[in-house]
Structure formats: C-alpha cells, structure tokens
TrEMBL record:
Organism in which the protein naturally occurs: Nesterenkonia flava
Protein name as catalogued: Pup--protein ligase
MF (Gene Ontology): ligase activity
HAMAP family, A to Z: Pup_ligase (MF_02111)
Reaction catalysed by this enzyme: ATP + [prokaryotic ubiquitin-like protein]-L-glutamate + [protein]-L-lysine = ADP + phosphate + N(6)-([prokaryotic ubiquitin-like protein]-gamma-L-glutamyl)-[protein]-L-lysine
Key words, A-Z: ATP-binding, Ligase, Magnesium, Metal-binding, Nucleotide-binding, Ubl conjugation pathway
Primary role: Catalyzes the covalent attachment of the prokaryotic ubiquitin-like protein modifier Pup to the proteasomal substrate proteins, thereby targeting them for proteasomal degradation. This tagging system is termed pupylation. The ligation reaction involves the side-chain carboxylate of the C-terminal glutamate of Pup and the side-chain amino group of a substrate lysine.
Top-level taxon in the UniProt lineage: Bacteria
Residues where Mg(2+) binds: E9, Y55, E63
Family from the record: Belongs to the Pup ligase/Pup deamidase family. Pup-conjugating enzyme subfamily.
C-alpha cells in the first residue's frame, strides 16, 4: 500500500492521592475526570472536533483513540495531544474534587501496568489491503512484534518474585500477553487481534489491530515504533521475500526477551534455529533497507526510522545503552532509574525505583519525569509543542477532517447529531446518514450538502481563534470551533 492510515488508542492509569487517608475509588475518580466530557457530549463515549474519540469503559482507565492519520508526524502530534488533553482533564478534576470538599492530586499515567500489576493497553491500528495473505502476514509480523520491544519497549522496574530477583525489563506489556493471534482483545490478550472491523470498505481493506505495544512517552520512540511496523507491513504487502522468522513459541519468547536486558536471550525459530532478538531484528532491518533502496522511500522520515532501528540494535547488542538514552523510552528511563539508584546507593529491589518508573509516565508537564528530562534537554523529540496544541483542536487531513467539521458545525447550529469512525447523521434527518468508507478522503460533497441544510455557513459561522478558544473555560480539546454570528431562524419581519 502506498499510503496507510494509522490510529493509536491509549488507555491511561489513573490515581488520586489526598494529603491523608485513602484516595477516591477509581470509578468515582474516573467520573470526576470525565465530567467535562459528559457536559460537552452528554456521554462518556464521544468524538471530539479533532476527530478523535474519548471513552470511559466500564473499568476506570480513560481511553483516547487518535483520529486516523495518513502522515506519521500527524499521528505523533495527535498522540501527544491526547496526553495534554488528559492533563487538562486532570487539572479540572482536581479543581472539582477540591470544590466538593476533598483534597489531593490526580495522577494520569501513560504507562501499561499499575502498582497492583493490572495491565492496560496502547493499541495500534493499521489499514491493510484485504488481499494481504494473513498467514504470511502473521509469520513475519509476530516475530517482529515479539522482538520489537527491544526497540520501542517502555522499560520496567520489575520487583522481585519468588523465583527472580528485581531487575529492569524492556517491556511493560510483555508479561500480559497470552496468545499470538486471536479475535478476542480482553479475555485472551493476543499480540494481534483479528476482529474484523475495518472502519473502511470491507471489500478492499482490513484494520490490523496490534495489542502488544507499550505506550510511548518519547516521540522519537513513537516514530520508530510506527515507522518500522509500517515498513514491515509494506514488505509483506509487496510480496518480497523476507525470510523465515516464524517463532516456535511467541508467548514464551516475548517474556523471555523482555526480561533479559543484555539482549542475549535466544528464541527458537520454527524448525530449530536459535536467534537473539537483535539478530532477528537485524535480519528484518537488512531486508527493510534493501526494500527501501529498491523501491524508494515512501515518506520523508524513512531514513530516520532506519537509522534509529540500526542504532538501537547496536545499543542492545553492545550493551552501550548510552547510544540511545535520549531517544528510546526503555533506555531513557533506565538511565534515569540508574542515576537515582547510584545517588542513593539503592538496588533494583528498592521501592523508590518503582516510583520513579511510574513518575516517568506522569502526563503532568511539570511533575512527570519524562517531561522534566525534556525541559532539561536530555531527550530528543521529533515534534514541537505548537504541533501538539494544533492537533488538540485540528483533525489530520484524512476522513477525520470531515468528522471534525461535521461535529463543529452541527454543534454551532445546535443540531442533534451522531458520528462514529464511518457514520455521520443529523438526528432529524435520519435518512441522510452519510457513510465515509474511504479513510483518506478529506472532502465529500454529501457532507457539504448535509451541512448546508443547517444554514448559510459562510455568513453565519465565525471561526474562533486559539486565544478565544482558550478563553471558553473548558479544556481546549472540548472548545467550540465556531461561533454563530446571527440567530438562524430570524423572526419574520413586522409589516
Ligand atoms: N480504516 C481504518 N484503518 C486503520 N485504523 C483506523 C481506521 N479507522 C479508524 N482507525 C483507527 O482505529 C482506532 C479505533 O479506535 P476504537 O477505540 O474506536 O476501536 P476499537 O479498539 O476497535 O474499539 P474498542 O476500544 O471499543 O474495543 C482509532 O485510533 C482510529 O483512528
Ligand atoms: Mg479502543
């Protein structure tokens, strides 16, 4: 596929720490957090003007699903916009909690395990052609994903268990995966989910749902994560020979690899050969480089992706993690934790280090340790703050742009409406439900015509500036794009 849309869903960890006593129970806290969302959309499961979805499931992990993005930089900005959005909701929740006579701070963590060992996800969605041979896809994709954690894992301080000392692992999610490929997401936690819900024209496309990833704090890590996976998919789709890396036991392998930070752990390829994760990744990287040399780069960041991929393999292989400790989440956090351990003369089993691990993922721009390192210039970045602010209120140039425009316009006119990834409906015109099955199409005459039924948009709608939107008194992502300049149904003139 020449172009691909990608979207990422992130579930966040949530906690309340009052100055004394126990915090609010998780479900109550989640309800506080989502109150502005419910006030905005009368539901805790809504689409918002930047084209994304905010969602509170039965549990208490708020979820943000980015809009479908056709450009990697848009995806990274949309992902970071979700963090910023969650932060603004947390600030508002703290204010409301205080107004109700409680105190304490609200913590939102972009990680994948809480202190009780529960896991929550960061799911990737890739548009793929329906013609992709699923057996071939899984034969290459599974080994890639099982070992991808050495490139883009978020790192984890693992406390001691009966049979293992405390140590540092590549991944947060690895221990929580139970199956290679399956159609269930929650019960069996597969690495790749095959539920067939393409949110596109089912005759031509599928949506590949990757469940295995750790959430990324570093945008450089994100670039490598989505960029390398996209390249592997392109190779599969184009049918070039990639070699046989199929694993004998993917679930055994994913844990084994995660817990050996030396990178020496081997996995068995079906048929007998043993390989380290680095050897396997290097094998795929060599093929990806050859593929790019032969077919050309399909976007401007391909060289950077390949360079990061290579450098990270090198760092794991040589043990010289300094090569990537500004770029790759597990290595950035490992260095941070090691610095603290050295300063205080404590070992991996010290609870303080688990706290540092958690605090790395705190989305609070002042309190979070990743953000602290960013302010000190200790980590690299591939997107800037303005792009993130922009992405909070602006959909990417895909079908999401139509979704955002539809929502913002209907809201300005006070017209009841419903949208999802594909459907657009004004409640009082149910027969005109519009389906947008092409995720790339960001213009559509049917949407324009439907919105025209609401009024003369060019004379009646005024777009709000960023400053005006910030002054609306709600989290930025939930502000109105348009202001209605004149009443729509004017009184009939008096004769
Ligand atoms: N055609 C598509 N191809 C790839 N990704 C898509 C496509 N359409 C939408 N997406 C992305 O897929 C994700 C869907 O998120 P959503 O949480 O709604 O789905 P889900 O995980 O299947 O549902 P749930 O979380 O309710 O189980 C979003 O990030 C969105 O941008
Ligand atoms: Mg989801």
């Amino acid at each position: 596929m020449d172009r691909r849309v990608i979207g990422v869903e992130t579930e966040f960890g949530l906690a309340h720490r009052p100055s004394s006593g126990r915090g609010l129970p998780p479900d109550e806290l989640a309800r506080y957090l989502f109150r502005p969302v419910v006030e905005y959309g009368r539901s805790s499961n809504i689409f918002i003007p930047n084209g994304s979805r905010l969602y509170l499931d039965v549990g208490s992990h708020p979820e943000y699903a980015t809009a479908e993005c056709a450009d990697l930089m848009d995806l990274l900005a949309a992902d970071r916009a979700g963090e910023q959005m969650m932060h603004e909701l947390a600030v508002e929740a703290e204010r409301r909690i205080a107004a109700d006579g409680f105190d304490g701070q609200v913590y939102l963590l972009k990680n994948n395990v809480d202190s009780a060992g529960n896991s929550y996800g960061s799911h990737e969605n890739y548009l793929i052609p329906r013609t992709t041979h699923f057996r071939r896809l899984s034969g290459i994709l599974l080994p890639f994903l099982v070992t991808r954690q050495i490139l883009v894992g978020a790192g984890r301080v693992v406390p001691a268990t009966e049979d293992r000392e405390a140590h540092y692992a590549f991944s947060q999610r690895a221990d929580h995966m139970w199956e290679g490929i399956s159609s269930a997401t929650t019960r069996s936690r597969p690495i790749v989910n095959t539920r067939d819900e393409p949110h596109a024209d089912a005759a031509h496309h599928r949506r590949l749902h990757v469940i295995v990833g750790d959430s990324s704090m570093s945008s450089t890590t994100s670039l490598l994560r989505y960029g390398s996976t996209d390249l592997v998919l392109r190779m599969v789709e184009s049918g070039v020979p990639i070699g046989d890396f199929e694993l004998e036991n993917p679930i055994g392998a994913i844990r084994h690899v995660s817990h050996d930070i030396t990178g020496k752990a081997t996995v068995r390829i079906r048929g007998g050969e043993e390989m380290t994760a680095v050897q396997l990744q290097r094998g795929l990287l060599q093929r990806a480089k050859r593929f790019v040399a032969e077919h050309g780069a399909h976007h401007e960041h391909v060289d950077r992706v390949l360079e990061l991929w290579e450098r990270t393999c090198e760092a794991v292989e040589t043990g010289d993690h300094g090569l990537i400790d500004q770029d790759i989440d597990w290595a950035i956090k490992k260095r941070l934790v090691e610095d603290v351990a050295a300063k205080h003369g404590i070992g991996w089993d010290h609870p303080r280090l688990e706290q540092i691990d958690m605090a790395y993922h705190d989305v609070h721009p002042q309190r979070g340790l990743f953000h602290l390192l960013a302010r000190r210039g200790r980590v690299s970045s591939v997107i800037d703050d303005d792009a993130v602010t922009h992405a909070m209120i602006t959909p990417p140039a895909t079908r999401a742009a139509l979704r955002g425009e539809f929502l913002s316009t209907a809201r300005a006119y006070g017209a009841e409406h419903t949208v999802d990834w594909v459907h657009h409906k004004l409640t009082d015109r149910p027969l005109d439900t519009i389906m947008l099955k092409d995720p790339f199409a960001h213009q559509d005459e049917r949407i324009e015509a439907l919105l025209d039924t609401l009024g003369d948009r060019s004379s009646q709608l005024q777009e709000q500036s960023l400053r005006q939107r910030r002054a609306q008194g709600v989290p930025l992502a939930l502000t109105e794009k348009y202001h209605l300049t004149a009443p729509v149904h004017a009184e009939p003139p008096l004769i």
